[in-house]
Amino acid sequence: MKKTAIAIGSMLLSLQLFASGSALINGKEIKSQDHLHTLLAKQLNFPKYYGKNLDALFEVLSTDYSGQTVIKLKHLNFLKAKLGPEYTEALIQAILDASEENPKVVLVLE
After folding, report:
1. Regarding the domain with residue range 10-109, which homologous superfamily does it belong to in the CATH classification?
2. Residue 91 contacts residue 110 (beta carbons within 8 Å)
């Protein structure tokens, strides 16, 4: 059975207090895949070599990121409209897969 790292509601507040890195991705504000990855890289202080794609996201979160990390995806319907439902689902899956390798990564869907 796969372990998932999705936090809901009030758990988010307690997790953010202990997070060494957190990112808020608001689907209403995302313009493109590149914009999404630029925001993630900036908010989570990714290394300069970050490749701005889903494979690179998985790699950084699962291997290079040692601190508690909370990624909150907000307004998923807007994100799906802008990036496509397949890409948005692949984004969510990449973060969940990384959380299986690195349990300090937490995904919050709103």
Report:
1. Barstar-like (3.30.370.10)
2. no
> Bridge-partner residues for 22, per DSSP?
70
Distances in whole angstroms, Cα of residue 18 to Cα of each of 9, 25, 68, 73, 91? 16, 19, 7, 18, 24
DSSP 67: S
Give the three-class secondary structure for 71: strand
Per DSSP, 62 falls in state I
Which alpha helices (DSSP H) does the chain contain, by range?
A: 10-18, 33-43, 54-59, 76-83, 85-101
- Of 68, 83, 85, 73, residue with least CA distance to 14: 68
Share of the chain above pLDDT 70, in %: 79
What's the pLDDT at 51?
96
Question: Please, what is the average pLDDT of the chain?
Answer: 85
Q: Residue ranges per domain, the chain? A: 10-109
What is the per-residue pLDDT across 33-72, written as a single tens digit (0 to 9) for each? 999 999 999 999 998 999 999 999 999 999 866 678 999 9
